[in-house]
Specification:
157 residues; Four Helix Bundle (Hemerythrin (Met), subunit A)
Length: 157
C-alpha cells in the first residue's frame, strides 16, 4: 500500500512540476517528462571578443536552463542535481566572460540556485509532497532568474 501511495505521489509531483515549469517557459518549448535537454542558441554577432564570449556563454546557460525544464523527476533527484551542476558551471563561465557586467542578474540567479540546492537536499532527505513542491518552486525561480540574465546578455549581442 505504501509503495502504491509513493508511486502515486511521484506521478502527482511530476504532473505538478510539469504544470509549473510549463508556465515558466519562455520561447523555448519543453516537456518535464523527457530526460534529454534541448540546445537552443543565442544569435550573436558582436565585434568585441569579450562580448562574443559572453554571448556564447549566455547561449550555453540558456541551454542548461532549458535542460532543467526538461528533467525527468520520476526516477529521483539525480537528474535535477546534475542539471544544477551544469547551470552553475555555465553561470561561472558567463561571469568570467562578462567581466563584471550583469551583476544584479547574476546575483539573482546565484540566490535562486542556492534555494534550489537547499530544496534539492531536502527532497533527497525526505521525498514528500512538501519537499517536491518546494523543489518545483525553486526550479521555477531558477528558470526565471536565468532567463532574465540571458535576456540581459542577449540585448548586448
Amino acid at each position: 500500500m505504501i509503495a502504491r501511495w509513493c508511486s502515486g505521489l511521484t506521478a502527482a509531483c511530476v504532473l505538478i512540476a510539469a504544470a509549473f515549469l510549463a508556465g515558466c517557459s519562455s520561447s523555448t518549448t519543453s516537456s518535464v517528462t523527457t530526460s534529454g535537454g534541448t540546445s537552443t542558441g543565442v544569435g550573436a554577432s558582436a565585434s568585441a571578443a569579450g562580448t562574443s564570449a559572453a554571448c556564447k556563454s549566455a547561449a550555453n546557460l540558456k541551454a542548461s536552463i532549458a535542460g532543467l525544464k526538461n528533467v525527468n523527476v520520476s526516477g529521483g533527484t539525480s537528474a535535477v542535481s546534475a542539471q544544477v551542476t551544469k547551470i552553475k558551471q555555465d553561470l561561472n563561465q558567463l561571469k568570467a566572460d562578462s567581466k563584471g557586467q550583469f551583476t544584479s542578474q547574476v546575483n539573482a540567479l546565484n540566490s535562486a540556485l542556492d534555494k534550489l540546492t537547499s530544496s534539492l537536499d531536502a527532497a533527497k532527505a525526505t521525498m514528500n509532497a512538501g519537499t517536491v513542491s518546494a523543489l518545483v518552486s525553486a526550479a521555477g525561480s531558477v528558470v526565471t532568474a536565468g532567463t532574465n540574465l540571458v535576456t540581459a546578455v542577449q540585448n548586448t549581442c
